[in-house]
Amino acid sequence: MKPSIISLALVLCWIAGFAQQTERNIFIIPEPVSLLKKGGHFVLPDEVVISIPSGKETAYVTGMLKEKLSLAPGKKVIVRNDKTSADIELSLNKMKDAVIGEEGYTLEVAPRKITISANKPAGLIYGVQTLFQLLPPQIESSKRVENVSWQVPIMEITDYPRVGWRGLMLDVSRHFFTVNEVKQYYDNMVKYKYNMFHWHLTDDEGCRIEIKSLPKLTEEGAWRTEQTGWFGGFSQPEPDAPKNYGGFYTQEEIKEVVRYAMERNIQVMPEIDVPGHSSAALAAYPELACFPESGDHFVRTGAPFLDWNTGGRPVAIYENTLCPANENVYIFMDKVLTEVAALFPFPYIHTGGGRGALYVLGKEPRREAADEA
């Protein structure tokens, strides 16, 4: 074979490989139900006209589009109710598409226009998130990015969720997260079309939700001695050590965070972990323990309170369980769950189901504790 023919063959192989590489560069998480890629691109104009139904239900999508397209790309964004002149058109189907359901969408990228349609605003939210993933990754920048070709491959996408409950859990008891950090968590959830947030609000290491009828839950139960290092490897803090780590959410902050989540089609399921994992509650109200006179009820710091070296299930060193034989425990739980239910529209409250040891070493014979992970 002549050198020129060899060179030509190598070039053709490189072109074919480059074409395949380009094809693989379309990454959408989660993968849509169907994607049909065509040739060419839609290029964002300097002035982007968006058509979207006005109203409270679409306010979040409108604001999100305006913010993203004006920050990194530096485009001038105009929102008007005029489909004919729109560069990006979002619409809610008058005749419902039974295939895509309440959270699905269709997205069509044509040479001169992008169209996203859905049955419900949730579908528009997810369609716009897919659009952002089709743009260059610099779209996530919070400041202007130069020398980027702001274009989207021409294609058709139909997408809807395979499962209805798509959730993530955040434990704010062992380590406290601020309101803004929780909101940032929601912002990342919506990018990948999660719709359920499991909020682990109480545990041995802190109670993070204000219960107005039980103020000591946060006055005392939300704060502990700060220790850094390997969780479970600390020594027990001195009784008079400062309680300098913690925090909690007021009921107004809870309402604010729930509203923020629901704008993003995220439901919030609170968790109040009982009857075990209750050291923080017992630090505030030791009379709810089986052994209130023990004097060792405090918010745990990460130091061991279970003996795992028993050859089987762990054995309790300290009590961390609400006493099921104490009638006041049920009065306590009624107050807690009544206030929690009023804060969260979601129809379920997760109660953890954690079981703790009912006996404390040195006071009663050892009794094994289950499920203390």
Strand order of the largest sheet: 1-7-5-6-4-2-3
* Helix/strand order: HEEHEEEEHEEHEEEHEEHEHEEHE
- Rg from alpha-carbon coordinates: 27 Å
Biggest sheet record: 7 strands, mixed
Describe the global form.
Answer: elongated
Beta-sheet strand percentage?
15-25%
**Cα end-to-end separation:** 68 Å
CATH topology of the largest domain: TIM Barrel
- The residue-averaged pLDDT reads 88
Q: Please bin the fraction of helical residues.
A: 25-40%
Tags for this entry?
seven-stranded mixed beta sheet; TIM Barrel; 2 domains; alpha/beta; disordered C terminus; four-stranded parallel beta sheet; 8 helices; Chitobiase, domain 2; 373 residues
Describe it for me?
27% of the residues lie in helices and 20% in strands. The protein is an alpha/beta fold and 373 residues long. The chain folds into two domains: 28-159, Chitobiase, domain 2, CATH 3.30.379; 167-352, TIM Barrel, CATH 3.20.20.80. It has a seven-stranded mixed β-sheet, with helices on one face. It has a four-stranded parallel β-sheet with strand order 8-9-14-17. The chain has a two-stranded antiparallel sheet with strand order 10-11. Helix 2 packs parallel to helix 3 (121-134) and helix 4 (179-191) packs parallel to helix 6. The longest helix has 22 residues, at 3-24. Mean pLDDT is 88; it is low at 8-24 and 357-373.
Task: Note the topology.
Elements: H1 3-24, E1 34-43, E2 47-51, H2 59-71, E3 76-79, E4 88-92, E5 105-109, E6 114-118, H3 121-134, E7 151-159, E8 167-171, H4 179-191, E9 196-200, E10 202-203, E11 206-207, H5 216-219, E12 223-224, E13 245-246, H6 251-263, E14 267-274, H7 279-284, E15 306-307, E16 315-316, H8 327-343, E17 350-352
Parallel strand pairs: 2-3, 2-4, 4-6, 8-9, 9-14, 14-17
Antiparallel strand pairs: 1-7, 5-6, 5-7, 10-11, 12-13, 15-16
